[in-house]
Amino acid sequence: MHEALSFLIDHQPLQMHLIIMTREEPKLPIARLRAKNRLTELRGNDLRFTRDEAMLFFNQIMGLHLSSAEVFALEARTEGWIVGLQLAAISMQGCSNTTQFISSFTGSHRFVLDYLMEEVLMQQSEKVQTFLLHTSILDRFCGSLCDAVLPNGMGGDEILAYLERSNLFMIPLDSERHWYRYHHLFADLLRQRLYHANKDKAEEIAVLHTRASQWFEENDLEIEAFQHAVAAQDVDRAATLIEGREMPLHFRGAAQPVLNWLKRQDASTLNERPSLWVIYASALLMIGQADGIEQKLSAAEAAMKQIDSKEVDPDLIGHIASIRATLGVTRNETDTIIAQSLLALEQLHPNNLPVRAATSWTLGVAYQLQGDRAAARRAYTEALSISKRMGHLIITLMATLGTGQIQELDNQLNLALQTYKQVIELAGEPPLPAACDAYLGMARIFYEWNDLEAAERHIEQSILLAKQIENTDRLSDSELFAAKLKLARQDILASEALLIQARHEVQERSYPHLLGEVQHLELLISLHRGGFPEAVKYLETSEWPVLQSRMHMIQGNASAALALLATLYDQARAKQWKNEQLKLRVLQALAFQVQGDLERALQRLKDALTLAEDEGFVRLFVDEGKPMLDLLTEAAARRIQPEYTGFLLSNMHHEQKLNHFAIHSPPIRFEPFSDGLSRRELEVLQLIAQGLSNQEIGDRLFLALSTVKGYNRNIFDKLQVKRRTEAIARARELGLI
């Protein structure tokens, strides 16, 4: 038959086009036809059911009324195999709990089992059956791996070629036809048959796993080597593989499998190898579970005391110190981080690059907390250099994150955004919880650029990831920023709710470094509500200098604000803190405005604009409200950086239109003034304090000169003064300006 078909194919007329529909590779001379595009092939992937076809089959043909999720689960389990779908449908007829059936539908189900046994497995030779059963322990396989696992070398490549030609439920995993796996249901059947045949000889299956583990290790696939060592219940081999030759296994993305195995071990097993206690602690730290880490480290130290001191490896002491330094990072304990990091570097073996890279990173965090950003950048760069060279994912991620934070603090917003994106790419899918800081950084940057929708998307992701990390300030930090974002959206109730929640966490868990932001948000919410209630008067004595300067301005005490801001600015300049210098220039401009010194206010504003323009800062100015609007309007009138001031003013006016009310000036009175000034009188009084003449006030407010003079008389009467200088002094005394 094949000879006749081959002759026909070789001599077919030009108008003939061959169509082949098969799951197996036919024994026909079709290579030439493929090359000339004179052949159409419908193979296994074309014949399998799609999800839509499976939905139609189950619900319309078989009348089972399954949900989309149930159909998709069956389609995934059967991999679109039509007979498998049909066997599942037959099995479900009259079934009272289809959900339970679907979750348990495997190759051991009686209909599937009978079909695969009768139609597939029993039709093979004894040699092929042995091959199938013994290689079923493998999630993926290739010829040389099969040779290593099978006794007496059965010719893996030869049998694999036969199985593929026969389409015997074997699926290629690459285009080179090197790696394969079995169909899910077929693999279930084979494993069941293997374990059933060796139910009294478990050691024989363990031997298969050990052979597989050895092959994977020899081919530098140590995660799979570890998995098979675990299956073989070979504790010594599993422990050796966890420790790794150049890098512990959990540093390579296998933290959860390693933890799962360690949790199943007796304490006596771990005590025999104290390094396993240390790896236990390190793996917990890697997945964000801080609870229990110190307990594991103490257990390691206790186990080490039972060993001859000469046999204790200093490298293990260094690794313990490095983990404690990282724990210090989660608590912002600078002294602990530095002390433990230096101890780690002293004890670690020079070739223990993975832990040395981690220790360089912890030092970078400590320097960043101290405000030495240049030293932090150098430490992060060193950690990156080591971790990238050896493929240490988690430290590459964390050092990249630290670099992005330094860039952001240096006002390099565009560069920081790209760095944060690299962190998210490194974090994978689903992302590692540590990526929460990258999302938070991106939220801050988009907020600063006034892209509030993008900021909201990123802060939501940051909060989701931060919730997966135990006993750190990451969630509180993200929630505080979310509260600030809600405030920018004028959603005061939502902002206040988030703030209350974050404040509770900050106080409950003692995060003093976040208290300043809590107090700042309390002040902003109070001002947005149009008053200054007793609830936040305690902020007058806040220990946070920037907040103190704002309180001085609210009270009209510009001199005190300026003195404090000058000191803070000198400190920031000495330390080369660029972000702080920019923010302080903005506050100095506002303080000079309160003092009535418009010229110096504009000079400080110009300094701030110069620092901010290249990176496109927006909210830094918009969030200051009406006082900043007035300053920017004056700057635009004087052609001070006209393009940028025009851009900022357009953002401020858009904000005003979006929120349907004027950008307000924060209230500046603690007690209501008995003969209160009207809104217009307050505006005139502010302009008088800025040194404008009556004519200039009229031009600014579009009022006639006589009207301005009338407002002056009313203001003087209410303040009980006779001249401008007295009015300004009295207004400052009352906190009106």
From TrEMBL:
Keywords: DNA-binding, Transcription, Transcription regulation. Pfam families: GerE, TPR_MalT, WHD_MalT. One of its GO terms (biological process) is regulation of DNA-templated transcription. SMART domains: HTH_LUXR, TPR. GO terms for molecular function: DNA binding. It comes from the Bacteria. Residues 669-735 form the HTH luxR-type domain. Gene3D superfamilies: Tetratricopeptide repeat domain (1.25.40.10), Winged helix-like DNA-binding domain superfamily/Winged helix DNA-binding domain (1.10.10.10). This is LuxR family transcriptional regulator. It comes from Paenibacillus antibioticophila. The lineage of its organism: Bacteria, Bacillati, Bacillota, Bacilli, Bacillales.
